[in-house]
# Entry
Amino acid sequence: MSVIVLESIYTAYEGGSEPVIKDLSLEVDRGEYVVIGGPNSAGKTTLLESINGLVKITHGRACVCGLDVRRRGFEVRRRVGYVIQNFYFDPFTPFTAEEVVMMGRFGRLGLLSRPKESDYDAVQRAIKTVGIEDLAQKTIGILSGGQQQKVMIAHNIAKEPDLFMLDEPFSNLDFQAREFLQDVFKGIVQQGVPILMVAHAFDGLPDIPIHLVVMNRGRVTGDLSCQAEEVEEIIRKECEVKERCSSG
Amino acid sequence: MLEWLIENNVVCHALEAMIFASVACSILGVIISRMSLSSIGFTMSHAAFAGAALGMFLGANAQMAAIAFSMGVAALIGPVSEKAKMAADATLSVLFSLSMAVAIFLISYMEYMGKGLSASSLLFGDVISLYREEIYALAAICCLSILFVLAFYKEISAIMFNMKIAESAGVRVKLVYYVLLFIIALSVALSLNIVGGLLIFVLLVTPASIAGQFCFNVKSMFIVAPLVALLVSAFGVWAGFEFTLPVAPLVALLLTGVFAISVMLSFKRRINTKIH
# Structure
């Protein structure tokens, strides 16, 4: 059964001159590693936020984890992990890294219930998986951008999601950290949880089949399966072809 | 409630009122200051002021009208911010202007009609002439604030951390946020008679700011802020009656003094220059 089924969806922001996502269809199955590429303002982040219901879908059918996103966006978000692209935490943010990781569990816990032993275990597992044991008791605001990014990834791993979405997860990370986390993501995919990753840099992708989605101007211009080392070239070609078509 | 400790009824009522108001406001203040919603203090106090003016204009109970008007304004903040795609702080400023305009319009009109409106107790507060019912109402809102934080602690802390991340995690952000606005509105409207619209800001912002100078986590801020507010308020009431000074401004001055000292003593901002 597909985890994501999008059929001809449109997403528009208020005041926008045209929809950001246009007539987009996509299907993602369990255990798929999906890379979404394309030029700036192609609608990649909007696509992720349409999938978890943060941005309103105006037309079309969207079913995620068996739930209708347009009607049950809140329930979808409880089951979908999403590492956002831009965040800033001031140095005096009064939360430790461990507390932030625990917040990933809050949606699943629901109102009025307190974290149980199993939730604390999930948090410790996530911290260990991402390798941030030494940062757990530090306040998040004093961590470096890369360390904060790792905490946000652990926050979503602790959630134990049915679908994992990441928006530019490596933007602040060094080469070693990227390789380490790619192994972590590979492990998540092998457990059957699909990953959707928006990225601009494609070095160090795991050696597993990649479901590549190329986007341009709100539409999917390429939807194919390939190997990790082919990703960058395919995206480059797709973008060049579309650019030539639109300018010619 | 504290008659067993203080014989003088007036002092006893003043102490009880100050304690309940300061604890309720300082707990909510921790949330407000973290979410950059400090302007909610003056917006709500002016909404209550406009409501009281409307109540007097219509010949209704001023306090009840103040509460009703504040609740109405609180109900508008969330939906207006969402619809207009504005930051809550900008919406608060718009609603502040509306409240102020309503209040000034009604006061001017009543003066023109030959009816006076005594606004001094709403603006400056009056701890001496409080009714028992008002203290019970304050005790109730104080308990409600504590229960609200205890019941929704995890949602509140997630929202205080980052609203978008909380929403992505599946936290019911809107529900908790709207309930929070309502409780703030109610607390401010009920506290108006004690410290007045001009000083309510001190109770909302200063204890949380003092706690922020020393606390590294939110849990301790929720304990330190009301504790500081309680101790300073109690001392302010005692000193006010002992030396015949106006209690509410004295508490405001004391809290500001404690804030100044805490800024000087804060170890949280210390820069480690140790060379190993």
Summary: The mean pLDDT of chain A is 90. The CA atoms of residues 106 and 113 of chain A lie 9 Å apart. The domain at 2-247 of chain A is CATH 3.40.50.300 (Rossmann fold).
